[in-house]
Design a protein that fits this description.
The chain is of the alpha+beta class and 326 residues long. The protein contains nine helices and 16 strands. It has a single domain, classed as 2-Layer Sandwich (D-amino Acid Aminotransferase, Chain A, domain 1). Helix content is 32%, strand content 26%. It binds adenosine-5'-triphosphate and magnesium ion (MG). Adenosine-5'-triphosphate is lined by residues 29-32, 34, 41, 43, 84, 96-99, 101, 156, 159, 213, 215, 225-226.
């Protein structure tokens, strides 16, 4: 793995944002800069990190980890579910099929956990015993494994607002999505989660929960879009220490964004109001965890591209260099 000193040095050279012209209409999400032209969408994953539905700053090489890891999973799960990936065009960019996103996030959960105001554990701790239409038993403990994985859909909230967890019945009744589309999407989410759990288990990791986004291709097929089984969309815990830590009442060892979430939670921040800034040691610690997650999941270290990301992207995306600016 890249040395800690090199990560500190790279703090000033992260990929914060792109402004390319001539490659399609730009949609700037919290983490990705998306360029859509015709039936293609180029998704540039930047180094921005978001948590609590806010952008907190950048983490070195995070965009490369997410891009490579999503592509790795998309290749390996094509037989489980169709997805939007066409090809990787840069260490930070995937060319994808432009789809119409379904207005719902499909969250699969194998454990009850979380620390944010919208998390399942927070709801349970408040005394709620129904989550997304699922009745929950009494006596559950934080980080406990559920009897079976639960599908807990969430509506996609506008920028700056929190997603809201809902049941299948509520979603269908609201008219947001048709029953057939929902059920196909749910089938894909369940199958992918099972495949992800199996792969992670074979590598000594627990796939705790994950969020899937699905969309319709121009032909009307429902496919997986966005990213899958990355440290941003999923929680991963280290299997070997889970039981011992659980019995001792400790949180499991995370290989995901929880490292950053926990930093904020320790400061007493839970997602409401302006977040405090991300200090260098947390940015570097997060980078180490993203890189470790890649290596632990895939079994091989990520081959980092340390070249200046903006000119490299411009070249790989076929942008005239003068129209690219930071
Ligand atoms: N193949 C695709 N076709 C259309 N939209 C897609 C596709 N893949 C991903 N998306 C959308 O592109 C965006 C990816 O950018 P990013 O993840 O940074 O956004 P976000 O901040 O999570 O989402 P948003 O700001 O829309 O709530 C998401 O809105 C996602 O739904
Ligand atoms: Mg997103």
């Amino acid at each position: 793995m890249i040395a800690e000193g090199a990560l500190y040095e790279s703090l000033g050279r992260t990929l914060e944002r792109t402004r390319f012209e001539g490659i399609g209409e730009l949609y700037e999400g919290k983490v990705r800069d998306n360029y859509t032209r015709g039936d293609r969408r180029v998704i540039v994953t930047t180094d921005r990190i978001s948590a609590f539905d806010r952008i907190l700053g950048t983490v070195p090489f995070k965009g490369q980890v997410l891009t490579s890891l999503a592509a790795w999973w998309f290749e390996r799960t094509r037989d489980v579910a169709p997805n939007h990936l066409v090809q990787k065009v840069d260490p930070n960019a995937l060319e994808c099929v432009a789809c119409t996103p379904l207005p719902v996030e499909l969250v699969m959960r194998a454990y009850i956990t979380g620390s944010t105001s919208t998390s399942m554990w927070t709801h349970y701790q408040r005394g709620e015993r129904v989550f997304c239409g699922h009745a929950l038993p009494e006596g559950l403990v934080k980080n406990q494994r559920l009897d079976a994985p639960l599908l807990t859909p969430a509506t996609k909230a506008p920028l700056g607002q929190h997603d809201v967890s809902v049941s299948r019945e509520q979603l269908v009744a609201s008219g947001a999505i048709g029953e057939a589309d929902f059920d196909r999407a749910a089938e894909i989410a369940r199958a992918l989660f099972a495949a992800g759990q199996a792969q992670c288990a074979s590598r000594g990791l627990i796939l705790v929960d994950t969020k899937y986004e699905l969309g319709k291709t121009p032909e009307g097929e429902i496919v997986v879009i966005d990213e899958i089984h990355t440290p941003d969309s999923s929680r991963f815990w280290v299997e070997s220490t889970y039981a011992e830590r659980f019995d001792a009442g400790l949180d499991p060892e995370p290989l995901d964004k929880d490292f950053v979430r926990r930093y904020y939670t320790a400061l007493g921040y839970r997602g409401d109001g302006e977040p405090p800034p991300l200090p260098p040691e947390v940015r570097v610690g997060a980078a180490q965890r993203y890189l470790e997650a890649f290596e632990r999941i895939t079994g091989a270290p990520l081959e980092l591209d340390v070249s200046d990301p903006l000119p490299r992207l411009a070249k790989n995306l076929g942008v005239t260099s003068t129209s690219a600016s930071a």
